[in-house]
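Consider the tokenized backbone below.
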């Protein structure tokens, strides 16, 4: 499947806010936002910050949808499929959408602290470093269910990366809908996350309105 491989800082600048796509770099002085480059990318980006044109309703909805896609690292076709699945579920479509996105395996790996970013978590999963319910998992898009167990594969724990990672795992920093056993380098999904558990700054109603046009 195609995947965006360009500079991710450009995506943050396009949305006009930090999306925290590069882990620690986003909180360091190297971040473009910390260096006064919070304007959109491109030759006319600097001028655009001074032209504060009023955005149409469509433009606001589009930007929110694009922001969500970029935060979770999805292409349009895949994101639209998540939305259709969210529509079929009971309850609010927007909340269903965020729940589906949050319970992706790559996102859970990131939330547990095994990776600095979702992109890094996706790569670790694709390389087969994790077990789900005792079986090796390779699909970052796999949606977890309550009581599913996630663990670093035994053969991967001796790698330099995971040895260093084990030193910074923090059980107290993990959200309530997840649990982490730092010593065993394992965790599990306690329950499906509610809207108040999801700290991603998104207005899901705008996304619903975009696809409901």
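A designed sequence for it:
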């Amino acid at each position: 499947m195609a995947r965006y491989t360009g500079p991710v800082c450009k995506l943050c600048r396009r949305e006009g806010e930090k999306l925290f796509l590069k882990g620690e770099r986003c909180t360091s002085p190297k971040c473009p936002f910390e260096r006064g480059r919070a304007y959109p990318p491109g030759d006319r980006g600097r001028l655009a910050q001074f032209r504060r044109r009023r955005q149409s309703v469509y433009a606001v909805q589009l930007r929110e949808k694009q922001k969500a896609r970029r935060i979770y690292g999805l292409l349009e076709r895949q994101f639209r499929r998540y939305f259709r699945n969210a529509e079929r579920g009971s309850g609010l479509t927007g909340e269903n959408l965020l729940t589906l996105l949050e319970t992706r395996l790559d996102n859970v790996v990131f939330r547990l602290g095994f990776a600095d970013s979702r992109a890094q978590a996706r790569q670790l999963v694709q390389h087969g470093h994790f077990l789900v319910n005792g079986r090796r998992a390779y699909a970052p898009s796999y949606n977890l269910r309550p009581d599913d167990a996630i663990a670093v594969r035994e053969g991967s724990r001796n790698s330099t990366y995971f040895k260093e990672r084990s030193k910074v795992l923090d059980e107290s920093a993990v959200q309530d809908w997840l649990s982490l056993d730092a010593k065993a380098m394992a965790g599990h999904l306690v329950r499906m996350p509610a809207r108040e558990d999801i700290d991603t700054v998104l207005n899901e109603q705008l996304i619903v309105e975009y696809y409901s046009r």
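Residues 90 and 174 are 27 Å apart (CA to CA).
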